[in-house]
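Entry 12.
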Amino acid sequence: MEPLIDFLDADLIPELDALDQAISSGDKPRAAMHRLFLTDAFLWLHLGAEIGIFPLDAAEECLDGYLRPFFESLASPETSERSESPASYANHSEESWNLVKAFPHFAGILIEKAMRGDRDLLSAEQNRFTYARGLVSTFQSLQLLSDYLRSHTTRTFITAVNFLDPDDWNSIWKVRCSPEEVEESERPEFKGLSKATIFAGYLRLYRYGLQAKDLFESLTDDPRLDAADLAKVRDRVHEMLGWLVNLCNGPQKLDTKRPFLRWWAALKMKESQCPEHVRVTRPV
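Predicted 3D structure (tokens):
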């Protein structure tokens, strides 16, 4: 029960509170970002319940108390046919449809089932592990890494790349930025959107991805784990995390993001040439 309480306190309740604040203040990009993180939390709850780290009855209470009301609130009173709907259909609002498009197919099915009030959310779209309990420590390690996602710079990057107006993106990208400014932007008192915070946020996500990759590589030959189960959870987590750095999303065209993409490609080149250096250097 304790892991679920920690999950609620760290990942779920703060996102719901922040979403309410964003909606009340009329900040649509920030509200959209919090909806993405709430859906992400829903997928982690779903995976944790299947693995067994979250007791099923407590996970169901969590769904009833927090997530089902969230998803049901996204349903539109107006029926509009969507041929690309991943499940049998739900009355989508613009907000819910954006979530379906951001996440993988299995998540889209779960989102639509949650919007309809279906009761079989935790048993639907499972991985069918052979020995799920053997993955508990892997799940716990992944949850520890999620601290990277709580940084204000990470949230700034996600909001900017997904929702920032092209003109605002261009104006930010024209400003020169030093490594010292990127480091400074990580301080808790640093507020506001800037090129430095975008860099810092992406670097945090990048290091998060590298450490998740290292974790799975370190477990490859672990005799205590079923190899097929490990492959299934690795693929599921990879799918779940795809929305975090989807550079095709957002109102900006890829041409607008080209300067950022050049920097991204240089970072990938650095990793291929000297992967250990990328892992140990500070995000500056």
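Annotation: Residues 143-280 form one domain. DSSP finds 13 helices and no strands in the chain.
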